Amino acid sequence: MPEQVDSAVFTVTATWDAEAGVFYSQSNIPGLHIEAASFDEFVALVRDLAPEMIADNLPRVAGPISVRIEARRDLVLPAA
Prior knowledge:
By secondary structure, this protein is of the alpha+beta class. Helix content is 24%, strand content 32%.
């Protein structure tokens, strides 16, 4: 039986899709797929859904869970 992990660090990236008008997730949390119209909504969904996805898909993680949320938005700017 695999050992239990006492703590874990995960990263969730919120990338803005201008065409769809949503932030979508990329993450190392198995099963976590999020789309949200605002960054605040995105963070709230991570807070609600990440613990469940970790419990369902990574049962060895038992201790404190740290989730880093990074926002990404690409801009195309005119040359000066």
